[in-house]
Amino acid sequence: MDDLLPQDCVARILSFTSPRDACRVSLVCTLVGAAAKTDDLWVKFLPSDYLEVISRLVDSPLDFKSKKELYLWLCSPNPIDNEVAELITTWWLEITARISTRMLSPKTTYTAHLILNFANRAYGLDVLPSEVSIEVGNRQVMRGTILLRRPEDGRKQPSERIFMGEERIPRERGDGWLEIELGEFFNDGLDDHEDVRMSVKEVKGVQLKGGLIVEGIELRPWKEDSAVGRVKG
Q1: Domains of the chain (ranges plus CATH)?
Q2: How does pLDDT run across 169-185, given as a tens digit for each residue?
Q3: Which of 29, 54, 111, 137 lies 20 to 30 A from 183 at CA?
């Protein structure tokens, strides 16, 4: 046992991996389990400005038992818009969301996900693809298309074959909701007065549509690490 590395050394080594790897190692190797739970390790995974980020997100101090608990809270996806909206009947569809870059960590890539569901009477949502756009400040950083709903019979519509791949249609989340990845953007942190604007539009068709339920748009951070590559935050 005298040959074992000190706990702080093990934590230092684990800090060059990813949060997911640190959790996995702690499960298969009890010798490093204690080191994988230390604040010294998890503070390395937190963004350098995490205290400032917390101060912008909440009005009162938060009480966390460990840096790992804080990390998991910061990385849990939260919708930009916490109000659920249902589309009753319309010809055109337009969903927009906006967030200031000062609410986001600098030097971080984010993915945007539309969280949605359908009422029993939903109709007209599988005919044409919707256009997606993400802008940071006055720069358009992403443009593409999504299909809000699979055709009832499971066959691909011509529009889906032309405009989309399998990753751009709804996926089940496991919590009763569906999600579609809209795209990603990089927050360089150089200007904290810019806005990130995300939109989903279908304004070219003449098909009545309804029954779409939207919970909001989630932003999820990614961390760039030369040692382990690109990992989800």
Answers
A1: 7-76 (no CATH), 85-225 (2.60.120)
A2: 898 988 889 999 999 99
A3: 54
